[in-house]
Amino acid sequence: xxxxxxxxxxxxxxxxxxxxxxxxxxxxxxxxxxxxxxxxxxxxxxxxxxxxxxxxxxxxxxxxxxxxxxxxxxxxxxxxxxxxxxxxxxxxxxxxxxxxxxxxxxxxxxxxxxxxxxxxxxxxxxxxxxxxxxxxxxxxxxxxxxxxxxxxxxxxxxx
Length: 159
Prior knowledge:
By secondary structure, this protein is α+β, with helices and mostly antiparallel strands. The chain is 36% helix and 21% strand.
């Protein structure tokens, strides 16, 4: 019997110590880092459109054709409001965005200065509001608004 008792004591001494698992508290960590935020292309397009229109020397956005269709659409009762995204195309990834803009500038302004100001304003607004890194802003100047030109307004059907 003593042999068995000694064997049991030897087994007890050799028993592994219990493992300790690391317990994390619920809610630990930065609450702002829990989950994922996605930003739609249209959101970035609206921000960029507003930022572009704020720059002096920008007369309008979009090509002549898109501006004409937009003017017709704006006059239809119950139609959509003026499109802020006209002339703006955005590609949005998880952490970066790229933008293509099409603008019409006022006659007499420096196109190089206006496009530089547009880039700076758009990059600042998009990065500040979304947290995305803007990797490029491509700008196509599609027209120059001459002082004597009248605004392109579609002919009204109803008088």
